[in-house]
Amino acid sequence: xxxxxxxxxxxxxxxxxxxxxxxxxxxxxxxxxxxxxxxxxxxxxxxxxxxxxxxxxxxxxxxxxxxxxxxxxxxxxxxxxxxxxxxxxxxxxxxxxxxxxxxxxxxxxxxxxxxxxxxxxxxxxxxxxxxxx
Length: 133
Hints:
The structure is a single chain. The chain is mainly alpha-helical. The chain has 2 domains: 17-91, no CATH class; 92-133, no CATH class. It is built from 5 helices and no strands. The longest helix is centred in the first third of the chain and has 51 residues, at 17-67. The protein starts with a helix and ends in a 6-residue tail after the last helix.
């Protein structure tokens, strides 16, 4: 434990029990929020990895196609891509981790474990003042 934290705890000991409990609850909420935030960041990172890889691949394909100067080759690529996309349909298929993350988020909402945008932004501004204006 740091000296600063020890000093603060010593000062808090002189407060009435009610105020000590209130501060303890604030610290408990902050630690829970921090843990939840870290967990959500790991989930978001794993959910974003695949779409980012797909975007990179699509970008590379665009670059390669732009370099083709042969109409026969361009027609062949067009035929392959158009047949593939025509058979694909408009249904979005979620991966198991994506579905699980959405289900967990919906469960949290149903259980009332939500925060208003204002509350989240206030916390973010306090915690990361250089990132939130």
